[in-house]
Specification:
- The structure holds 2 protein chains of 2 kinds.
- By secondary structure, chain A is mainly α.
- Chain A is about 70% helix and about 0% strand.
- Chain A has one domain (about 55-320): ABC transporter involved in vitamin B12 uptake, BtuC (Orthogonal Bundle), CATH 1.10.3470.
- Chain A has a two-stranded antiparallel ribbon with strand order 1-2.
- The longest helix of chain A has 27 residues, at about 220-245.
- By secondary structure, chain B is α/β, with parallel strands linked by helices.
- Chain B has 2 domains: about 1-130 and about 270-315, Rossmann fold (3-Layer(aba) Sandwich); about 135-265, Rossmann fold (3-Layer(aba) Sandwich), CATH 3.40.50.
- In chain B, about 40% of the residues lie in helices and about 20% in strands.
- Chain B has 12 helices and 14 strands.
- In chain B, the strands form 4 sheets. Chain B has a 6-stranded parallel beta sheet, sandwiched between helices. In chain B, strands 7-6-8-9 form a 4-stranded parallel beta sheet, with helices on both faces. Chain B has a two-stranded antiparallel sheet with strand order 10-14.
- Classes of the chains: A mainly alpha, B alpha/beta.
- At the A-B interface, helix 2, helix 3, helix 12, helix 14 and helix 15 of A face helix 1, helix 2 and helix 4 of B.
């Protein structure tokens, strides 16, 4: 008999090693390098007020992106979010005309968001329609209602204290929107990573039938996710309307794709089943840093879109290529 | 220039962190021309005018910028990055008079001169607004365009957009007021084509049938002038009836070549970009102040005078004819 010893590791990777090789670490490295590059290419980048202004490029979109991340992890999608903003903003604008004050306006904005989310959720979970089809439909529907109400007109005359949500500062350069963004990020982090509800979201995304048989009420979880996405669109509508101090039916046009881009860049699997909130937070910063950095160099918007597109493809393709090259 | 600034920028990050933008006092005055969206011929031409003004003024750098599509949110991101760069002046053609206003107010709070041109911003969001022209100037121009080619006088008719179109009605009213200044010119009818090609075409045919001695059709609308030109060509009345009014050079080139239109007018985007830059420069250097009644010099365009709402009109609409149509037909 020959004496053979074999090394059997206790575990495949140490927690530290796993964390170092994670998507979030890669994305964080990208964010830091963009930050450094920006500091060198533009003398105006490293300035507290300018960095504060930069956050407005992504805070509202990121608020929706968190809810969208949960929805995509569960295997669904909502493309009507930007149109919900338009409808909620139009409702708030109409309310201003009949003299409703700031607290009422906020409630109306959030309420319209919830109703729109419930409508999407009803069509998807009760009637069993595919969410991509439903929300492409409601994308036209919600914004269409705004166009019918407003046409080429605008609502203005928002009360002056309403401007705090989109233009106010909590402390020095820290804007109210940024604080709200941080709080919402924290809430979604807890929901997704520390609750039974969060585990159910992952389970549904990985195997909806299996989840159903394990006693998860799949339809109810999905309905709640659509409600949350609608609510977040309402929150974003309050912030954006306050920042613009006016409403036109074209408000937030095209945001749905930027929000989905943010979610996918954050490492959420577009087919569902995996993804994290910290990933989406870093992705929001990456997109904000890239657009603001290029803006400081007066790079035309179309080039910015190309850079974002290449970044998305690059960040997603590189790890795959790396795996292939290693094996 | 850009290389030295980049080197300077790289080595002086620490200074920048301490002193912010103050460390980067520029020799050049930087004027940003913000347009509704990049890649539109009209605005490219305006940028050309801005560069012309910059060359004439000297020590002026033009930053020609705008969003990819015509959204207010996109323009706000552009404005934020211009505020961050500490430009001296912003001259904007706004996608939304209200939505960009808070961002522009912030720009003014940080000492940036803000003027709007072409498409205005509400009064709180800018120091002054430059209109390409004004109602009396347009009213006079459309009559003059017809009268110039009618030395013996005669009958003219107006083909407008809809009967409720605010702009057109104001221009026609202004035209009627100056009519006594053009003896021999008789306005026989005003008809409405509702800015629809087929309806305008039929209305033009109707005018030719009702008034056999008609010498000119004046259409102060881009749809109407094109349809009238078509109707006159189809009726084989080129040379008898002159079609004039307000049109786009790209659409009207064929009519001018065929002779159905001797001349027509519309604002000139090059002059508009030029004047906006001149005004922004004058306000930013303190050579002029934006207040009601102020007169601001605009280089080769003369000067403009501000009204009660700090709005000014640049000039008569620019006249296009066979001599310059080729130059402008590719622009807009």
């Amino acid at each position: 008999m020959t004496d053979t010893t074999r090394f059997i590791p206790d575990r495949l990777q140490s927690p530290l090693e796993r964390r170092l090789k994670s998507w979030e670490t890669l994305l964080l490295a990208v964010a830091v390098s963009i930050f450094i590059v920006n500091s060198f290419t533009s003398p105006y980048f490293l300035n507290a007020w300018n960095l504060s202004d930069m956050t407005f490029n992504f805070t509202e979109k990121a608020m929706i992106a968190f809810a969208m991340a949960l929805l995509i992890i569960a295997g669904e999608i909502d493309l009507s979010v930007a149109s919900i903003i338009a409808l909620a903003s139009t409702a708030m604008g109409a309310a201003v005309q009949i003299g409703i004050g700031t607290p009422g306006l906020v409630l109306i904005g959030l309420g319209v968001g919830l109703i729109c989310g419930a409508f999407n959720g009803f069509l998807v979970t009760k009637l069993g329609l595919p969410s991509i089809v439903v929300t492409i439909g409601t994308m036209s529907l919600f914004r269409g209602i705004s166009y019918i109400i407003l046409g080429d007109q605008a609502y203005r005359g928002y009360p002056s204290d309403f401007s705090f949500f989109g233009q106010g500062y909590v402390f020095w350069v820290i804007s109210f929107e940024f604080v709200l963004f941080a709080i919402i990020a924290l809430i979604y982090f807890v929901i997704l990573h520390n609750t039974n509800f969060g585990r159910a979201v992952y389970a549904i995304g990985n195997n909806p039938v299996g989840a159903e048989f394990s006693g998860i009420r799949v339809a109810r979880v999905k309905f709640i996710l659509f409600l949350l996405t609608g609510l977040m669109s309402g929150v974003a509508a309050v912030c954006l309307t306050s920042r613009l101090a006016s409403t036109r039916p074209s408000i937030a046009f095209g945001w749905e794709l930027e929000i989905v881009t943010m979610v996918v860049l954050g490492g959420v699997n577009i087919l569902g089943g995996s993804g994290t909130i910290p990933g989406v937070v870093i992705a929001a910063f990456v997109m904000g840093l890239v657009t603001f950095g290029l803006g400081l160099l007066n790079v035309p918007g179309i080039v910015m879109s190309i850079v974002i597109g290449l970044l998305l493809i690059g960040v997603i393709a590189l790890p795959r290529l790396w795996e292939k090259w290693k094996s | 220039m850009s290389i030295t600034r980049r080197l300077f920028g790289g080595s002086a990050i620490a200074t920048a962190m301490l002193a912010g933008n103050a460390a980067y006092a520029q020799d050049d005055m930087r004027i940003a021309l913000v347009v509704k969206a990049l890649g539109i011929g009209f605005f490219e031409a305006a940028a050309e005018g801005a560069e012309e003004a910059a060359a004439e003024l000297g020590n002026v750098e033009i930053i020609y910028t705008g969003p990819t599509d015509t959204t207010a949110e996109g323009q706000i991101e552009v404005i934020n990055s211009l505020i961050a760069q500490g430009v001296d002046a912003i001259a904007i053609s706004a996608n939304d008079p209200d939505a960009v206003s808070p961002a522009l107010q912030r720009a003014m709070q940080r000492g940036i001169t803000v003027v709007s041109w072409d498409s205005g911003v509400n009064e709180e969001g800018r120091m002054m607004h430059l209109n390409p022209s004004s109602t009396p100037l347009i009213g006079n121009t459309i009559i003059k365009l017809a009268a110039d080619h009618m030395p013996d006088g005669g009958q003219v008719a107006i083909l407008s957009a809809s009967a409720t179109a605010t702009n057109q009605n104001a221009w026609i009213e202004a035209a009627e007021e100056v009519l006594p200044n053009y003896p021999g010119i008789e306005l026989v009818a005003t008809v409405y084509g509702d800015d629809l090609s087929d309806k305008s075409y039929r209305e033009a045919q109707g005018l030719m049938a009702s008034y056999p001695d008609l010498k000119a059709i004046i259409a102060p609308t881009t749809v109407g002038i094109l349809a009238s030109c078509q109707a006159v060509s189809d009726a084989d009345k080129i040379g008898e009836i002159n079609v004039t009014g307000l049109g786009l050079p790209s659409e009207m080139a064929g009519c001018v070549v065929s002779g159905a239109t001797e001349s027509f007018a519309i604002w000139n985007p090059i002059d508009l970009g030029y004047s906006a830059t001149m005004i922004a420069h004058a306000l930013a250097t303190g050579a002029a102040t934006a207040e009601p009644g102020a007169e601001i010099p605009t280089g080769r365009m003369g000067s403009v005078t501000l009204d009660d709402t700090n709005t000014a009109a640049m000039s008569d609409p620019f006249t296009y004819d066979a001599s310059n149509i080729d130059q402008f037909k590719d622009i807009f």
